[in-house]
Amino acid sequence: AKHAGKNKYAFFTEAMQANTTRALTLSNALHDALEQQEFTLHYQPQIALDSGKVVGAEALIRWHSKTLGAVSPGEFIPIAEESGQILAIGEWVLRETVRQLQQWRSEGFAPIRVAVNLSYAQFQGNDLPTLISGILEEYNVPADYLELELTEHIATNNPEHTIEILKAFQQLGIQTSIDDFGTGYSSLSYLQRFPVYKLKIDQSFVRNMTTNTNDHIIVGTIIVLAQQLGMKTIAEGVETKVQLDLLKSIGCDDIQGYYISRPIPADEFKDRYLQSDRN
Ligand code: C2E
Ligand code: CA
Ligand code: CA
Ligand code: CA
């Protein structure tokens, strides 16, 4: 028994060591990633359930490291958050999104709103609204083309400060939504004080809502809650027609998910979803 215990311990240390090594490797590779232009953005369409039309997109970062190959954001974003590198990466994402919006506009496509994910570190301090309005001005892009997603966890981490920053975005005319909604702990009293436009229903509930009564009830409750608060709803992770129909029947506004499209490169998004503005 003593022997097994020792092996178990050794196993855990090795696993932890491997994790730390991988994290260090990624953190080092991230150091050059911006300069080496290893990041791109993919865009995933968002559809309005009443019209079936594309009303927006979410920008999702992709990293193809010259030394490590493709690394998923689920793996490297937490590491970049830990190391502080997320601030520079997050600024690149904002600038690249706005630059792309400007380019599509100059090519004569009808405007579409693109949502960008924000990390907690970007919310600290008071610089974010200034940074973003500066980028919009730099590219001469109207504020309502941009949407900002913050997770429910960010929103509730430091609610008073979050409310201040959200008010600044509201004043700038930039829409905001609460991502991964339902996975955190926002109290009703805070939620009604958050000046956000939309609740994004977490994909974990959407995944099982056609088979699990509890998840069905949760999604329905979030939609009613949003309606009471004057907010819109978007369901993410929609993979089937059955999910789409159910969401439509219970009053969800918009959907996003593989059933419509995976996140795709900018040019592909343009070819498949953007409409000419010249007519
Ligand atoms: P998220 O913001 O919740 O983004 C949704 C994730 O679900 C994306 O994964 C998307 O590709 C995936 N997805 C979309 N539709 C479906 C579907 O129908 N089924 C399934 N199973 N998945 C679907 P992705 O692109 O790997 O991003 C993972 C997470 O990384 C994001 O979760 C977000 O938290 C973070 N992330 C991605 N890009 C950025 C970024 O530019 N900045 C920051 N701060 N975080 C980002
Ligand atoms: Ca998101
Ligand atoms: Ca999400
Ligand atoms: Ca998520």
Molecular structure report:
- The chain has 279 residues and is α/β, with parallel strands linked by helices.
- 52% of the residues lie in helices and 20% in strands.
- It has twelve helices and ten strands.
- Strands 1-2-4-5-6-7-8-9 form an eight-stranded mixed beta barrel, surrounded by five helices.
- Strand 8, helix 11 and strand 9 form a beta-alpha-beta unit.
- Helix 1 packs across helix 2 and helix 3 (86-106) packs parallel to helix 5.
- The chain is globular.
- The chain starts with a helix and ends in a 6-residue tail after the last helix.
- Bound molecules: ligand C2E and calcium ion (3 copies).
- One calcium ion is lined by residues 58, 117, 149, 179.
Percent range for helical residues?
A: 40-55%
Strand content: 15-25%
Encode the helix/strand succession as letters. Answer: HEEEHHEHHEHHEHEHHEHEEH
Shape: globular
Per DSSP, the total helix count is: 12
Sheet bearing the most strands, described?
Answer: 8 strands, mixed, barrel
Bound molecules: ligand C2E, calcium ion
Helices and strands: which structural class?
A: alpha/beta
Radius of gyration from the CA trace?
A: 20 Å
Q: Can you list the strand order of the major beta sheet?
A: 1-2-4-5-6-7-8-9
**N/C terminus separation:** 78 Å
Average pLDDT figure: 93
How many distinct beta strands? Answer: 10
Keywords:
279 residues, alpha/beta, eight-stranded mixed beta barrel, 12 helices, 10 strands, binds ligand C2E, binds calcium ion, cyclic-guanylate-specific phosphodiesterase
